[in-house]
What we know:
The structure holds 2 protein chains of 2 kinds.
Chain A: H1 6-25, H2 33-39, H3 58-75, H4 79-101, H5 103-109, H6 123-129, H7 134-154
Chain B: H1 7-31, H2 59-68, E1 74-76, E2 81-83, H3 91-105, H4 108-112, E3 116-117, E4 120-128, E5 134-142, E6 147-159, E7 162-175, E8 182-197, E9 200-211, E10 218-227, E11 233-246, E12 249-260, E13 264-270, E14 276-279, E15 288-295, E16 301-309, E17 316-322, E18 331-332, E19 336-337
Amino acid sequence: MLRINKIQFLIGALALLVGGLLYLVDRPPNYTYFINNLVNVSFHGDTPRIFGSLGNTLPAYLHVFSFILITGALVSDKKRDYIIVCLGWCFLDCAFEVGQAFHAWSLRITPEWFSGIPFLENTQNYFLLGTFDFFDLAAIALGTVTAYLLLMITNKEKGG
Amino acid sequence: MNISGNGPCKKLRCLSGASVIAFGLMTILATGGGGGGAPPPPIVYRGPLTMAVVDRNNAQELATGAYLGGQIGMAMDSRAVIELGYIGRPRSWKVIQVLEDSIGHMDMTSVAAGVSYRGLITSRETFACACGGSATYDIRINDITGEFNGTMTFSSCCEDGVTGSGRADFSGLLDISASPPVILRFSFNFNYLGFSSGSDSFAVSGIVAYDFQTSPYTATIDMLLRENATGSVFWINNFNLSLAEGPGYVDVHFSGRFYDPAYGYVDIYTDPMQAFRIYDGDEWPSEGLLIVEGDTGTGLIATATLTAYPPPPDFWYEVDCDEDGDGTPDFNSGQLFWQ
């Protein structure tokens, strides 16, 4: 039986839901692949922007934060493993963000066979049309630190 | 990493960890991650690149499509024709209006008065748009030649009832010796800008260039336009559009090539003596004559002519079609209403 740290998992899932809500409410639907291609539902324009200008950077924070918690909850309860999980997600998110700043190079290493495969087909657009933002990098760093602290607080292991 | 658990449990943890990582990567790609730049889907024209055969069956569709920059809010699904609302003013006009109003909001006087470093003045400004939203631009001006370039990000920027979002690069020329400095040329280059007004919603990718040295000013447009309601992509190619403002109205002249994904391209131009006149507060033209040239199917020029009329009973138009290229109309649509 797989042991899951339920608190970590629930907090991570909740953060992920908040991130999803942000895209449904605050972002124009045409700008989001999963709204255009999967859910086809948007409340943008129907309600006031919930997150205001924070909504520009919050997804970067929530993404790394939620996936660190979910991964941590599922794969390990060892404190030293949490550092690997945190650094892994932080590196991954930062790499994608920086890839937008150097989109010519990013496009060169994007395999052509990605086109036509759901989600992967958006890789080219992600780098070509996405906006690099230092605030996103800061949000990723902050998300990593807070997720690590939360993992430590909610960890049931004694020692590590 | 020492994943805890014994044999099957360890495998299960590895599997769930890999699934979470895959899901995490998918969400990055599916949302764009964050910042100002969630990546939009590409706009690609996939229709014929040949000249459209114009006949009585498609003359109205091509003429109104060329005027409006798409169809009049109707789409077919497997069950029925769906009403999708109406377009109103030509979409090309909506685009150039939002962009031109944004240029008008730029405070070039204070930018040009900024501190020059190695011959370049740089500035970052934000302005509020007329009916909501804002736009932020970063600009670099050569303080000797007056050439400038930069990036403008529109955040639900609303001008005259049309809302635009997205990011555009720009460049141009400023008469820096004039007081106040005067913009002579301005060109936007964008991969994706989204626009909405009323029930009409579309996205564009391409170039809009303004020449403010002519009066009335002219805008040159080369862009792909996707209707969000139907997903159809049209190509507005080498359009020249001029807006001449009079007391309480605007006269719109345009010419260029319009690619319809169902038929191919037509060459269009407004009658020089009969521009499309749209009065303030109106969505539809009270007068105007548009000539649409296509193929007869035998290599001759077939023509569809759209003529606009004011109420009563409502704004309407008629389309004449010379489908055999002999110079004489073979078909008249009768009275048609814009909505």
